[in-house]
Design goal:
Chain lengths: 344, 895
């Protein structure tokens, strides 16, 4: 109803997406096409989670961070590399970590379009703002030689330790060549590093005593749960004391640890192999997914909630009642969709 | 002047106007002449020892006219009064007026359905918007109170920036043969504007008009408020006049495009009001009149105008925050010292020394923050643009990199159609254009009486200008082989002119001869080689006489104007989807020239009607066009390479406002051609080969962009008498109504057809014509008196019949919208580029398009309807149509 003091309002775009989740089952499939839908990371308030998504509608086919509501449905926000330097390359944003002040740390790789190559031309741990990529500060370029004197080719599993310090998983990237298969690169966990960004020059140190880490998660600021390549145990390190203990022992190689509200989830067994690559002289864990287990930490009760989906990288929300994980697909396990488990 | 009784001439009488500021004494024949009187109302007083003085309070003088007052003085004060015979010399038949002058006065502007000075002037015969007699935009001069004001930087593509509120005008006129040698910088016409002087008592007027009360689509969000005041300051004759005009529009560029047929298109609900299309402007002016002494007056005038626009870009229809915006600001400060000869002077010499400073700044680009509209279209905020600072610093080194804040626009995912096609989002287009033009102009005009029937006009002017420009396209990408470099320039041109003109009359033959010398020197130190000053001499001659009651004028004149300074510097612009285009600036450009031959006849069939017929031929030469460099179609240089001719005739029939009505009918025919229709069009020999042979004619001419063959304008005015109609409860509701109706019929303007890919012409340039246009405007006003306050209310309707006038068409089809085949091809190409499936969670997913409800829109059967709908939406001919019916209601109050 217009009054004499109002003017007609021009048209504006409407809401054209269904918004609501499509799948009400449990588990529910959140993404409907097997492309690249991976590495979910929950927002601190549990209202949704970011994940890395392939964008075929962009001319550069970037992989962007997409924000999906807690129960699924239409993506509400996307963070892509729209900078001038990003237009001629395939840019991948992954493993975001959002601090309480809105600082967004992520790992970005850039691969020039039109040139066949196995690994990115550029990779970096970068710092920006979650409310807009107005400025991006490169904290650490990969490859770099970490404190353990080993090359770190890639980064994942980022967590804010303090407002000026991040923990991340330093990864080694190797190349697999074989007859009759598609040449590919494989990222394998190697060490847990800490980067302090309070000073003018970021300083990288490694957590001592943790070698061949395959995944980790940080709970409460001082409890670090981690897994090791080729190892069935999940460990807990209390950071102030650097004391390590075994939290749970699975029946197969455990990795992709996530912990919340007294629950631990990990991917166990499945299509995973740990071996020493003699051509590149490094131990490697090749992982195409496995079974998804949830353990109640207080009791040690272990429940396998999925043995058919070849899951990877599960992520608990803060309540421990929602678990989002990748289901791997494709010949090389390079395609995936996201699934949501609602736990009581 | 004669003795009222003896009827003999009275010699030596002193005639003064406005308390003696100007005047003359009568000669032995009792004749007198006062020269260079400003337009407007004046008081005249005549005294002679032995005779009773006479004073006339309201003598209206209009520009270009001679007013004749025959006075009869009474030598016996007690017997009879002096007699005044007010016999204004006929403005139509006066042979001393050689110009083709079409005038509109302030009262007429107030009555007619026009709001701006430009609209008022456009009612003149031969005017197509701001193009006069077929000329390109910018081929005219704007004279404000005798001082030329011109945006010499980009007059052909940009506005002056100043908007003079009509409420402070005495009158405005259009001189289409620009005859007087006093005026330069014009090939097609001179717009002469005279502002009011402050009155001797405080008066004011305030007005507000709006369309808020109109229902839905008729409400375009117009609000306009106006305040004018003028009056004396102190007792020394100092006066002040001030005006403030504020205008806001939510839809500042309304169109009458048809509503889309797809109900999912959000424009289908409100097809007339476009978003991100608002505008606001503020114009403020003040004038101070300071009498120095009896013979000298100083007038100080200052004006500030600013217009900010949000620009609707169809590609950003669904991501409006990234659509472009613009701001134009202009300041003008002038000072005039006017010296008038003593009334007793035998050879009176009047002189005007004027100094003006004009400052105009323009910026267009992406906003760094979207403004909030606080009241209608008013934001009250200064727009801030991305990288405006770099543009103002003209930092071309920093601008070679991607500019801060700019990112790569992506295909929008906020459309109803979802598919990645046509519409943009995420980031603006990446353009920033900025320029700044300043001019300090000084001008001296002297009028010297050589006798009772001969006048000499002498003068000159000097202008020091300063030009700064900056332009960057695709600012989200660093400069490389495909991205044009930023362009910037800084230079300080100088121009000067001298003129002399003589006007003499013997019996009924009047001769006017003038000579004008123009010079300009670009001083383009920063943009290339020095080339020195260019010069032009422009003689002008007119002979007029009265034959069998009709005045016949034959005139010939040469005119020259410096080219837009924008053509002296490089220009990079984005006019394709593939890459930026580039024109190399040419600091060696010279004057653009015209030679006009004109013959006109003016007659008065009855005391209240007049007829004017003009026929003219105008030869154009040295117009700026683009000349190719090598074979690269994107590379060209500006040059004085274009020539052409305009031939036309005009018929103006006018019935003056007498009794209760008046009318004016003007018809213009013209045929305007040149070898290139725009400075940005590349001159090239056109191949015509109906038999397969290639013919390369040396002098092919094409219709100019404003070559309107036929235009007919009818202006009707009527005013009901004060006692008209029945009285109801002591009130005559039908009395005193004022009605003005303007009807336009215009034949179509030319346009160029191309093939489907747009890279090959179909036929010759501008060889096709748009359909004709018909527009009827109306204003109905009712004066009111409430409690001693006078005022009025009015109803103003533009395009009363809501005619859907076509203003442009697609060059490849000649139709306003794309054909079904084009839409299909666009959709198919877009689908081929992006055949990927759209999953349910994607912001691009549209449930209604998921025909098999599998949560994925995939395959041609599901995706193609979306691409087709998007193509139909994108190709809607929004701006192909002129404005719809626009209605506003206004109220004004005088105090």
């Amino acid at each position: 109803m217009l009054t004499a003091c109002d003017h007609t309002t021009p048209f504006s775009p409407g809401a054209y997406t269904p918004g609501a989740p499509r799948d009400s089952a449990n588990p529910a499939r959140l993404t409907t096409i097997d492309t690249v839908n991976e590495r979910p990371v929950w927002l601190a308030d549990g209202s949704g989670f970011y994940f890395t998504q392939w964008r075929g509608d962009r001319p550069d086919h970037d992989r962007c961070l997409a924000l999906m509501p807690r129960d699924g449905g239409t993506i509400t926000r996307e963070i892509c590399d729209n900078t001038s330097g990003g237009a001629d390359s395939l840019n991948v944003f992954e493993s975001p970590a959002i601090a309480a002040d809105g600082s967004l740390a992520l790992y970005e790789t850039s691969t020039r379009i039109g040139v066949a190559q196995l690994s990115p031309n550029f990779g970096a741990l970068a710092l920006t703002r979650s409310d807009g990529l107005s400025t991006i500060r490169v904290l650490q370029v990969t490859t770099f030689f970490g404190p353990t004197s080993r090359p770190v080719n890639a980064i994942s599993n980022m967590h804010w330790l303090t407002p000026t310090a991040l923990l991340f998983l330093g990864e080694r990237e190797i190349y697999r060549f074989c007859l009759g298969c598609v040449a590919d690169s494989v990222r394998s966990g190697q060490e847990i590093d800490r980067i302090d960004i309070g000073g003018p020059t970021p300083i990288v140190t490694a957590l001592a005593g943790i070698d061949q880490a395959s995944s980790f998660t940080l709970v409460g600021g001082d409890s670090l749960y981690y897994s090791l390549n080729g190892d069935a145990n999940v460990y807990l390190r209390i950071l102030p004391s650097a004391a390590d203990s075994v939290v749970h022992t699975f029946s197969g190689i455990a990795r992709d640890v996530t912990v919340a509200a007294g629950r631990l989830a990990a991917v166990v067994g499945g299509d995973v192999a740990f071996f020493y690559d003699s051509t590149q002289s490094v131990p490697v864990q090749v992982d195409h997914g496995g079974d998804l287990h949830v353990v109640t930490l207080a009791t040690g009760a272990d429940t396998m909630i999925s043995d058919t989906l070849h899951t990877r990288r599960p992520a608990f929300d803060r309540t421990g009642t929602r678990l989002v994980a990748e289901a791997r697909a494709g010949i090389n396990g390079d395609r995936s969709s996201l699934w949501l488990w609602k736990l009581p | 002047m004669r003795d009222a009784v003896a009827t003999t001439p009275v010699a030596g009488a002193l005639i003064t106007i406005d308390n003696g500021r100007q005047g003359a004494t009568t000669d032995a024949a009792g004749a007198y002449r006062i020269r260079e009187v400003r337009s407007g109302w004046h008081t005249l007083r005549a005294v002679r020892i032995g005779f009773r003085p006479v004073q006339i309070d309201s003598v209206l003088v209009r520009s270009g006219e001679t007013v004749t007052l025959d006075l009869r003085l009474d030598a016996h004060p007690t017997a009879i009064d002096s007699i005044v015979v007010n016999a204004a010399r006929d403005k139509v038949l006066d042979p001393m007026v050689p110009q083709d002058l079409q005038r509109i006065t302030a009262p007429e502007i107030r009555l007619l359905p026009v709001t701006t000075l430009e609209e008022a002037v456009a009612l003149s015969a031969g005017a197509v918007g701001e193009s006069y007699r077929g000329g390109r935009l910018g081929e005219s001069a704007f004279i404000l109170d005798g001082l030329g004001v011109k945006n010499q930087l980009d007059a052909s593509t940009g506005s002056l920036g100043l908007r003079i509120p009509p409420e402070i005008l005495t009158e405005a006129s259009l001189v289409t043969n620009a005859f007087s040698a006093r005026y330069g910088q014009a090939l097609s016409g001179v717009v002469n504007v005279v502002t009011k002087d402050p009155g001797d008592r405080w008066t004011g007027r305030t007005a507000y008009e709006s369309d808020r009360l109109m229902p839905r689509s008729a409400d375009h969000g117009l609000d306009r408020a106006l305040l004018t005041i003028d009056g004396p300051l102190g007792a020394h004759g100092i006066g002040f006049l001030g005006v403030l005009n504020a205008e806001g529009r939510i839809d500042a560029d309304p169109v009458n495009a048809p509503a889309p047929t797809d109900p999912r298109d959000p424009r289908s609900a409100e097809p007339w009001v476009l978003p991100h299309n608002s505008g606001e402007r503020l114009d403020g002016a003040g004038k101070l009149l300071v009498p120095v002494d009896q013979r000298n007056i100083v007038r100080l005038f200052g004006m500030y105008s600013v217009e900010q626009r949000l620009l609707y870009d169809p590609a950003y229809k669904y991501d409006l925050t990234f659509a472009p915006a613009s701001r134009v600001r202009a300041d003008l400060f002038t000072a005039q010292l006017q010296h008038t000869a003593a009334p007793e002077s035998q050879h009176p010499l009047n002189a005007d020394l004027r100094v003006g400073y004009f400052d105009r700044a323009f910026v267009r680009g992406a906003l760094s923050q979207q403004p909030v509209e606080r009241f209608g279209g008013f934001t009250g905020q200064r727009f801030h643009f991305l990288s405006e600072g770099i543009a103002e610093r003209q930092d071309t080194v920093a601008a070679r990199a991607a500019l801060p804040g700019f990112t790569v626009p992506q295909l929008s995912e906020h459309t109803p159609w979802g598919v990645p096609a046509f519409f943009l989002g995420d980031a603006p287009r990446g353009e920033i254009a900025w320029n700044h033009f300043r001019e300090l102009r000084s001008q001296l005009d002297v009028t010297l009486a050589g006798g009772p029937s001969t006048d000499f006009y002498l003068g000159g002017e000097f202008a020091q200008q300063h030009v700064n420009t900056f332009q960057r396209v695709f600012a989200y990408q660093p400069v490389d082989s495909t991205i044009p470099p930023p362009t910037a320039s800084t230079f300080a041109p100088q121009s000067a002119a001298l003129y002399a003109e003589m006007q003499t009359r013997a019996e009924d033959i009047a001769v006017t001869f003038g000579l004008r010398y123009d010079q300009f020197d670009p001083h383009t130190q920063t943009v290339g080689q020095q080339f020195g000053a260019r010069r032009a001499i422009s003689p002008r001659l007119a002979v007029s006489t009265v034959l069998k009651g009709a005045t016949v004028v034959a005139s010939w004149g040469r005119f020259a104007q410096a080219p837009d300074f924008q053509y002296l510097v490089d220009a990079a612009f984005d006019d394709t989807l593939r890459t930026g285009r580039f024109r190399r600036g040419n600091p060696d450009l010279g004057f653009e020239d015209a030679t006009q031959y004109e013959f006109s006849v003016r007659a008065r069939p009855s005391p209240v009607t007049s007829v004017r017929v003009n026929g003219y031929i105008k030869r154009l030469d040295g117009l700026v066009a683009s000349v190719p460099i090598g074979i690269n179609p994107d590379s060209a240089i500006f040059a004085n390479g274009d020539f052409g001719s305009v031939k036309g005739a005009e018929l103006i029939v006018e019935r003056e406002m007498r009794d209760w009505w008046g009318a004016r009918v003007s018809y213009a025919f013209m045929n305007a051609e040149a070898t290139s229709t725009s400075p940005f069009l590349i001159l090239q020999n056109i191949s015509i080969g109906p038999t397969g042979d290639t013919i390369r004619p040396a002098r092919v001419q094409f219709p100019l962009d404003y070559d309107r063959h036929h235009s007919l304008t009818v202006v009707l005015q009527a005013r009901a008498p004060d006692a008209f109609g029945p009285r109801v409860a002591g009130v005559a509701p039908l009395a005193a109504w004022e009605l003005a109706v303007i009807g336009h019929y215009n034949s179509g303007l030319p346009y160029t057809r191309t093939n489907l890919t747009g890279d090959t012409l179909v036929g010759l340039p501008n060889s096709f014509r748009l359909p004709p246009q018909t527009i009827i405007d109306m204003r109905l006003r009712r004066p009111l008196t409430l409690g001693g306050w006078r005022g009025s209310v009015y109803f103003d309707a533009r395009n009363l019949l809501n005619a859907r006038n076509l203003q442009s068409v697609r060059r490849e089809t000649g139709t306003p919208g794309a054909t079904a085949g084009e839409i299909q091809a666009l959709a198919q190409a877009a689908y081929t580029a992006h055949p990927e499936a759209i999953p349910y969670e994607s912001p691009r997913y549209r449930a209604w398009a998921d025909l098999n409800h599998d949560g994925v829109i995939s395959g041609s059967a599901e995706l193609m309807p979306l691409y087709l709908a998007a193509a139909r939406d994108f190709t809607q001919p929004i701006f192909a149509y002129g404005p719809p019916r626009l209605i506003r209601l206004g109220v004004e109050l005088e105090f």
